[in-house]
C-alpha cells in the first residue's frame, strides 16, 4: 500500500503543486523514504522546510488563526479537529508518531514480549507536568484507565478495549497487558487522544476543559477566553532540549473566511490554518506570504440517522448514496481542491482503502427504484443539519439538497451552532448531518469510534455484526497485507450499507508570513511539529 503526502512552500510565480488527487498542477520533485509502521505510511513522499534560513532562533510569539474554537479541550473527550491542533501543543503521550515512524516521547524506550501481549515502557526522568509534578508511571496508569472508563465518555474508548491492564511497576516503569496482540497499539498510544494527564488537575474542579491544563507538552495554557482566544506559553521544563523555540502561541478564532484571509494578508496573524479554498489563488500571489499544501486529512460525509425511519432501511440509504455526485460536491464546496470519495471512509492511497470505486456517476433511475422498493415511490421530506459557521460544509449541504431533490427527497437545511450540533448528534436527534471526520493515524481509531456499537462518535448507533467482526479481527492481525484485506472488506460494507455517504477528502493548506520558519507538515495527521516552528525576526 502506498500513502503519499508532501508539504511544499510556494513563492510568488511558482505553479501550485497539490497532493495526488487534488486539482491543479502536477506532483512536485520529491524524495521517497520508507518510514513505515505496519504499512500505515509506507513509501512516504514529502517535501518540507526543515532548516530554512540557517540556525533556528529562540523567542517570539506565533499568532495562529483557526476557524472555530474547540468545545472540549479534555484530550480524552475531544473530537473536534481544532482541539487536536491545540492539545498537541499542550499534551504528550507515551510515544509520538511522525510521518508514520513511532518515536520516544514520555517513554524513552519500550519492549514488547515475544507473544505481543506485554508492553513495558521506561519513562524518561525529565518529563514534568505544567503543574511542576514529575510524570510518573501512576499517571500513565491513571490516564489509560480514565480513557477506558465509560464515565469518561471518551469517543475513542473502543480502540482501547484490548488493553486488559496497566500497572506501575515503579515510578518510571509501566507494564501494559493486552488480551491479544494488537497491530495498532503503539500507533494508538502515540495519539493526542492517548495523552498522559496530570491526575491532580483532571480530578480538580474544572477538570481538563477549563483554563488550566493537565499536560506535559512543550506549551501550557496561559489564558483562555472561550470562543475568542487561547494563549499558550513555553513550558520551561519540557524534556526535549532546545524545544520549543517560541516563547508562546496565541490562538484566535474567526469563522469568517474573508476576515481570516484579510488577517494573514495584513500581517495581523503569522499563521493562517486552512484558509477557505476560494482564497488560495489570491494568497499565492501575495509576495509577503508563503504557503504549504498537501494531501488532505479531513474526510467529508453525509451522515444518516439509522436509529430512525426511513434511514434504518438500507435501500433508502443506498438510494441516497447512488443519487450523490461527489465530484460536483467537491467542486462547489471546496473549489475542486481534494479527492472525491466514491467508496468508504479511506481515500484510495491510504492503508486498507478500496482502490476501486463502489459508486461512479449518479444513477438516478436506480436510486428511484430503490426508494420505491422501500415504500417511498414519491420520496419523502428530510432535515439536513449543518454547522452554520462552516461555509464549505454549508455549501456541501446545499449541493446535496439539490441532488437528492432529483429522486424526490425534499431536504430542508437546518443551520445550527456547533454546540447545538454536538448535543443533537450525541442525542441522535437528527435526520441527516453534513459533517466530516479527520483521518486517524491508524484506521482502527476511526472505525472503532465512528462505526462500532458503543463508539463515541457513532451518531445514530449504526450496527453491523459482520463489519464489527472484521474491525476487531484486524486489530490483532499482525500481517499487514492480511490486515489491509480485512479493512478493504469492511470498507465495502461501509460503502454499501453503512450510515454515511462519504463525499470527498479535502486538500489542506496553511499560509504563513515569510519569516515563519521550520514548518514540517505531517498529514498523518499530527500537529506536534509546531514545536519546531521559529520566527526569523
From TrEMBL:
<dbReference type="GO" id="GO:0042597">
    <property type="term" value="C:periplasmic space"/>
</dbReference>
<dbReference type="InterPro" id="IPR039424">
    <property type="entry name" value="SBP_5"/>
</dbReference>
<dbReference type="InterPro" id="IPR000914">
    <property type="entry name" value="SBP_5_dom"/>
</dbReference>
<feature type="domain" description="Solute-binding protein family 5">
    <location>
        <begin position="101"/>
        <end position="456"/>
    </location>
</feature>
<keyword id="KW-0732">Signal</keyword>
<feature type="compositionally biased region" description="Polar residues">
    <location>
        <begin position="32"/>
        <end position="44"/>
    </location>
</feature>
<feature type="region of interest" description="Disordered">
    <location>
        <begin position="23"/>
        <end position="60"/>
    </location>
</feature>
<dbReference type="Pfam" id="PF00496">
    <property type="entry name" value="SBP_bac_5"/>
</dbReference>
<feature type="signal peptide">
    <location>
        <begin position="1"/>
        <end position="19"/>
    </location>
</feature>
<dbReference type="GO" id="GO:0043190">
    <property type="term" value="C:ATP-binding cassette (ABC) transporter complex"/>
</dbReference>
<dbReference type="InterPro" id="IPR030678">
    <property type="entry name" value="Peptide/Ni-bd"/>
</dbReference>
<dbReference type="GO" id="GO:1904680">
    <property type="term" value="F:peptide transmembrane transporter activity"/>
</dbReference>
<dbReference type="GO" id="GO:0015833">
    <property type="term" value="P:peptide transport"/>
</dbReference>
<protein>
    <submittedName>
        <fullName>Peptide/nickel transport system substrate-binding protein</fullName>
    </submittedName>
</protein>
Amino acid at each position: 500500500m502506498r500513502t503519499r503526502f508532501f508539504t511544499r512552500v510556494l513563492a510568488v510565480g511558482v505553479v501550485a503543486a497539490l497532493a495526488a488527487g487534488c486539482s491543479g498542477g502536477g506532483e512536485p520533485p520529491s524524495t521517497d523514504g520508507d518510514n513505515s509502521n505496519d504499512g500505515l505510511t509506507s513509501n512516504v513522499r514529502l517535501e518540507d522546510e526543515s532548516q530554512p534560513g540557517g540556525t533556528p532562533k529562540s523567542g517570539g510569539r506565533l499568532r495562529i488563526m483557526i476557524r472555530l474554537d474547540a468545545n472540549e479541550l479534555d484530550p480524552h473527550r475531544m473530537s473536534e479537529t481544532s482541539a487536536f491542533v491545540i492539545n498537541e501543543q499542550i499534551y504528550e503521550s507515551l510515544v509520538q508518531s511522525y510521518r508514520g515512524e513511532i518515536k520516544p516521547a514520555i517513554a524513552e524506550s519500550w519492549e514488547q514480549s515475544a507473544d505481543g501481549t506485554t508492553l513495558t515502557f521506561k519513562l524518561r526522568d525529565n518529563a514534568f507536568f505544567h503543574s511542576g509534578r514529575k510524570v510518573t508511571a501512576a499517571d500513565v496508569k491513571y490516564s489509560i484507565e480514565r480513557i477506558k472508563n465509560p464515565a469518561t465518555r471518551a469517543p475513542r474508548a473502543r480502540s482501547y478495549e484490548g488493553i486488559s491492564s496497566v500497572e506501575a511497576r515503579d515510578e518510571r516503569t509501566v507494564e501494559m497487558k493486552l488480551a491479544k496482540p494488537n497491530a495498532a497499539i503503539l500507533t494508538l498510544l502515540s495519539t493526542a487522544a492517548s495523552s498522559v494527564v496530570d491526575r491532580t488537575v483532571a480530578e480538580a474542579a474544572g477538570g481538563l476543559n477549563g483554563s488550566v491544563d493537565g499536560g506535559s507538552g512543550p506549551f501550557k495554557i496561559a489564558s483562555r477566553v472561550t470562543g475568542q482566544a487561547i494563549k499558550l506559553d513555553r513550558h520551561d521544563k519540557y524534556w526535549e532540549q532546545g524545544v520549543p523555540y517560541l516563547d508562546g502561541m496565541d490562538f484566535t478564532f474567526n469563522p469568517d473566511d474573508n476576515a481570516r484571509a484579510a488577517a494573514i494578508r495584513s500581517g495581523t496573524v503569522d499563521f493562517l490554518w486552512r484558509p477557505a479554498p476560494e482564497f488560495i489563488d489570491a494568497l499565492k500571489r501575495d509576495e509577503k506570504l508563503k504557503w504549504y499544501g498537501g494531501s488532505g486529512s479531513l474526510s467529508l460525509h453525509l451522515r444518516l440517522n439509522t436509529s430512525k425511519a426511513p434511514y434504518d432501511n438500507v435501500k433508502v440509504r443506498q438510494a441516497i448514496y447512488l443519487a450523490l455526485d461527489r465530484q460536483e460536491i467537491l467542486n462547489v464546496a471546496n473549489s475542486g481542491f481534494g479527492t472525491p470519495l466514491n467508496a468508504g471512509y479511506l481515500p484510495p492511497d491510504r492503508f486498507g482503502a478500496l482502490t476501486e470505486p463502489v459508486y461512479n456517476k449518479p444513477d438516478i433511475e436506480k436510486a428511484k427504484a430503490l426508494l420505491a422498493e422501500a415504500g417511498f415511490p414519491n420520496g419523502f421530506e428530510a432535515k439536513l443539519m449543518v454547522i452554520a459557521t462552516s461555509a464549505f460544509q454549508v455549501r456541501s449541504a446545499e449541493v446535496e439538497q439539490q441532488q437528492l431533490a432529483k429522486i424526490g427527497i425534499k431536504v430542508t437545511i437546518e443551520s445550527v451552532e456547533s454546540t447545538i450540533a454536538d448535543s443533537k448528534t450525541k442525542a441522535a436527534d437528527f435526520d441527516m448531518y453534513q459533517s466530516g471526520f479527520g483521518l486517524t493515524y491508524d484506521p482502527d481509531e476511526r472505525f472503532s469510534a465512528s462505526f462500532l456499537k458503543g463508539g463515541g462518535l457513532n451518531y445514530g448507533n449504526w450496527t453491523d455484526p459482520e463489519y464489527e467482526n472484521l474491525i476487531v479481527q484486524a486489530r490483532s492481525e499482525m500481517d499487514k497485507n492480511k490486515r489491509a484485506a480485512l479493512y478493504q472488506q469492511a470498507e465495502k460494507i461501509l460503502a454499501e450499507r453503512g450510515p454515511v455517504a462519504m463525499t470527498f477528502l479535502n486538500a489542506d493548506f496553511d499560509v504563513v508570513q515569510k519569516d515563519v520558519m521550520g514548518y514540517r507538515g505531517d498529514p498523518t495527521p499530527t500537529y506536534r511539529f509546531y514545536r519546531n516552528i521559529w520566527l526569523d525576526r
